[in-house]
Write the structure tokens for this entry.
Amino acid sequence: MDRDLQELKSLSAALGGDSALVQGPGGNTSIKDDDGCMWIKASGTWLCHAEEQPIFVPLRHAAVMMAIEAGQEALPPEAILPGGPEGLRPSVETSLHALLPHRVVAHSHAVNAIVTAVQANVEALLAERLSGLNWAFVPYCRPGLPLTQSVAEVVRSRRPDVLLLGNHGLVVGADDGGSALALTYEVERRLAHPARPASTKPRNDLPARIQGPWRLPAEGVSHAVAFDDEALGIARGGSLYPDHVVFLGHAIATVDEAGADRDLSACVVPGEGVVLRDDLPPAADWMVHALSEVTTRLRRDESLRYLTLEEEAELLNWDAEKYRQALSRKSA
């Protein structure tokens, strides 16, 4: 068990340490051992902390599978084994990890995978770029049990090693952590979309100048969306993936729309930079970082699929995501 857990820690730290693959508390990893235990990242924790903090929860794999078969999203108490960190819940993607037959599963919010996953012609792109890999595409549905049930339809007939999740991200399965990491990088290499160059240097006096409850995000790349008209137009069109909704809300606003409304999480001053509400935790910084990374790789003439208002509301009203938001604020 110790060797399995160390293998998971090493994989997780590598994924979490690369912002092109995971931003902030996003993504999750798991490993199944020979004794029926599945270790999985705890909800709201950061993969980059895997080797320095206890972020993995041990679960009885058979009990998780029984909950899936019964259509139960909440895990029964007997599914959680002793030995994990106190007060933390297993990832909202636990059922997906349990369902997949691979020993190691890694779910990332890899930038190029997301850029591909939000396009209307995603399956044609995947057929062209992932030729030779064992892949499948799963259209968007809410993370958690609904997504697991959609993936179950695929797994019944085949055993894909690569899943691209519509408007969400990338999942890979492998026999070991090194192979899972290598496969993640291989998919990202094949799906590469070059980013348009844009300035990442905001006006330092921006928060004070627009006279709101604002601060500058920590990540300089976050400001690229303010200096690329095409990226800003895409960002204003709506939300493209779940973590944006959970940590930033709906489409990003410009300063003219923002005013002094403290309910907004972030806004853009075109040509000058991005500001965040001053009480937001570090997870929000990484979400505007991801927004710039994604939108500067997309074009306005591409047909994009945004999350619907109903899909956004489903995420924001989901208890599991409310918990993750609260944990993020507490850890900050």
The first helix runs from residue 2 to 16. The chain has two domains: 2-190, 206-331.
